Amino acid sequence: MRRLTESVPAGRAAARLALSLTASAMLAAPAPAAEPSPPVAWVATWGASPQPVWHDDFLFPTNIPTVLSEQTIRQVARVSVGGERLRIVLSNAHGDRPITLGKATVARSRGNSALEADSLRTVTFGGRQAATILPGASLLSDPVTLPIPALAQVAVSLYLPDATPMRTFHWDGRQTGWIVPGDQTMAPAIEAADAATQSTTARLLLTGIQVQTAQAPRAVVVLGDSITDGATASLDQDSRWPDFLAARLAPHGVALVNAGISGARLLSDGMGANALARLDRDVLAQPGVHSVIVMLGINDIAWPGTAFAPDSPRPTLEALTAGYRQLTEQARARGLRVIGATLTPFEAALPDTPLDNYYHADKDALRRQVNDWIRRSGVFDAVLDFDAALRDPGHPARMASRFDSGDHLHPGDEGNRAMAEAVDLDALLPGLDAVPGSTTIQEP
């Protein structure tokens, strides 16, 4: 009996020891490997470069009110690549006082000013609906969960509760927007017949849309002038040459941002800042940018002597090439691939306008010298020869009639399509054709 009674605690001790060893082994064993989370990153999918609003005595009207107060602005933008979440960028780059934003919404567009009702989302900034855009600054929204397919149209509505002088805009948006009284950010559509409703093709405050992507973010930015901005492209048709190029890039998951400004120049300010002054904001700061296309210089060559710059001297070839070199070096120092684009023909440009002296044979001679340098200098990583794509083979100083909008300077829709189709995608991002991207495409 004694042996039996002594054996019970010994058995319990052994059991406790076994449990302890098992627990230790369990603690020491590595946990099963968790499924890796897909990487997420932001990429710029649309842009409209901010410009300073000019005075009433300028050659062109601004097409916007000088002050907005207790009004809503609704704007539509077609993104290039899509994503499950997005955020918007607002700008007060040229303002001299803070702008109070009362409310902002975003939705998928149903055409014109109408929204897909189930897609309407309120946009916040640091968790709050109201926000302030400081002078000279931009404002980035919180992420908004709203699945957007590639090449889809997004409607952004902004309510300004206070008297707000308009100092920053993008003059030629090639897209109709609406300005209406009161807070109509949640309105399913804007009543265009209302006498208080104003329409405009300028962009106000909205300068960027970004989407979150699970694949490696890749974007191409086009730094250009009115030809890139789409000065004569059909309104509301997304028919600028970067729009057509965006449709080619979208199946590869590559975004495109149009940083064209009508009247932009390489070396001088004009209807927007010179190229180097806006390089950081319009190109280098865009998330996901890998390549930049530079199509600038025709206004540098042709503005001098016109109503735009009656007393300005024409730049030399050396000054222009130095500007291209500096732009290229700064972009390449940030890891970007830089693609140069030749300047398109412009003989007899802008007839029957105050700028009918835009063309001159001496100016065209300089354009040809610049194009020869772009093709042969080796400064750029690749060259897009838009001059060769658009010129009339029988009269190379002129644009071919089938591509001409009629003003002999800007291509029409078919010319824009021809430019986009002339782009070698491998020149933008080598190996692109071997890396398929997103396949959710909404036809433009």
From TrEMBL:
One Pfam family assigned to this protein is Lipase_GDSL
Region forming the signal peptide? 1-33
Query: Sorted alphabetically, which Gene3D superfamilies does this protein's record hold?
Result: SGNH hydrolase (3.40.50.1110)
Entry keyword set:
Hydrolase, Signal
Give this protein's Gene Ontology molecular function annotations.
hydrolase activity, acting on ester bonds
This protein is called: SGNH/GDSL hydrolase family protein
InterPro entries this protein is in?
GDSL, GDSL_Rv0518-like, SGNH_hydro_sf
What organism is recorded for this protein?
A: Verticiella sediminum
Q: Which SUPFAM superfamilies match?
A: SGNH hydrolase (SSF52266)
Whether Ribonucleoprotein counts among this entry's keywords is no
